Amino acid sequence: MIIAENLTIYYDRQKAVENVTFKLDSDQTLLLLGPNGAGKTTLLRAVAGLHQNYKGTLLVFGKPPIESRNVISYVPQSYSLNERVPLTVIEVVAMGALYKRGLMHFNIPRNLLREATEALEFVGLGSLKDKRFSELSGGQKQRVLLARALISKPKLLLLDEPLSALDPSARVEVVSVLAKIKQEIGLAMIITTHDPNPLTEIGDKIMLLNKELIAFGSPEEVLRDEIITKVYGSQSKAIKVGKRMYCFIGDVHLHRGERK
Ligand SMILES: Nc1ncnc2c1ncn2[C@@H]1O[C@H](COP(=O)(O)OP(=O)(O)OP(=O)(O)O)[C@@H](O)[C@H]1O
Fold first, then answer.
1. By alpha-carbon position, which residue is closest to atom 28 of ligand 1?
2. Does residue 258 form part of some domain?
3. Choosing a second label site near 122 at 20 to 30 A (CA), which of 54, 55, 70, 252?
4. CATH number of residue 152's parent domain
5. Atom of ligand 1 nearest to the CA of 256
6. Per the database record, which ranges form the ABC transporter domain (predicted)?
7. How many angstroms is it from 16 CA to the middle of ligand 1?
8. Cα 160 to ligand 1 centroid, rounded to whole Å
9. Ligand 1 pocket check: which of 41, 78, 212 to mutate, most ligand atoms within 8 Å of Cβ?
């Protein structure tokens, strides 16, 4: 379980996220929604144990995040793999485990190659394992990064904007892998997004963040006109299609000067 109580996160003395409280069960998926500069990445990095300038309580499986890092996989927004290094897809996946195990060499042990192959098959890319990573499409790269994040068998998967910069069909591919992860692996996930609509089928909880916590609850509880208009203005609208909630929101940009 992930627990935050009165969590305030700082850059130096500047508050980036203020007084956030929430709980997430170990098999639940949280969609972390908010406009530019709302503090989504900052909160995600704090949960990952990568940003420790905070006050309040933050516990990941009963421990401060820094002590739980071996069971957390974090996929940053802009993945900084130098694409001039001619790595194959399977090497990119296997390196995820090598980093975690503190090994930094390129002789990938055979058992690890097998695990990496299985992880690639799980995301539907087994046939591309020997291809250059740099030659893949955006959606395929994101699926490889999911395989790489899964190889260390995390209990918590943190994804920063996994759908940004993908075209609609690539989004569908990635969302179907996320749904499979949720169904078949059953771990906790926190996914930051500007647009919850493609992800509402897998989101158990949604947090609307705008430096402060605006709302936290089920999609039905959070995607309501009276809540989303607080952040996205009077033009935004929540709508129910079948059993699922969706929303129309514009992109709101916060600038430093506008913050409290
Ligand atoms: N390294 C940093 N040093 C100082 N301030 C930072 C740093 N990184 C982010 N901030 C500030 O913290 C606030 C929250 O930023 P953050 O990147 O977490 O927002 P976000 O919701 O992820 O935005 P986006 O959707 O644009 O990625 C912003 O005001 C940002 O300028």
1. 37
2. no
3. 70
4. 3.40.50.300
5. 29
6. 2-236
7. 7
8. 13
9. 41
Alpha helices per DSSP H over 181-232: 219-222, 225-232
Ligand 1 centroid to residue 38 C-alpha, Å: 7
Q: How many domains does the chain have?
A: 1
pLDDT computed for residue 259 by the predictor: 40
Q: Is 141 inside a domain boundary?
A: yes
- Contact 79/145 with Cβ under 8 angstroms? yes
**Cα-based angle 197, 198, 204 (whole degrees, multiple of 5):** 75
- For ligand 1, what atom is nearest to the CA of residue 38? 21
- CB neighbours of residue 250 within 10 Å: 10
Residue 254 located in a structural domain: no
| Distance of CA 107 from the midpoint of ligand 1 (Å) | 38
pTM of the model: 0.91
| % of the chain exceeding 90 in pLDDT | 68
Residue among 183, 221, 171, 179 at smallest CA distance from 202:
179
Residue-wise pLDDT tens digits, 173-190: 999 999 999 999 989 999
List the domain range (segments joined by +) for residue 209. 1-246
Q: Is residue 102 part of a domain?
A: yes
